[in-house]
Amino acid sequence: MDSPRLLKKYPNRRLYDTRISSYVTLEDVRQLVLDGEEFEVRDARSDQDITRLVLLQIIAEREEEGQPMLSTASLQLMIRFYGDPLHGFMSRYIERSLQLFLEQQHTLRKQLGGLISNSPFAMLNQIAERNLELWKNFQQGVLKGGTLGSAPAKKKAPRAKPAARAPTKKVRS
Question: pLDDT tens-digit profile of 22-51?
Answer without folding.
Answer: 999 999 999 999 999 999 999 999 999 999
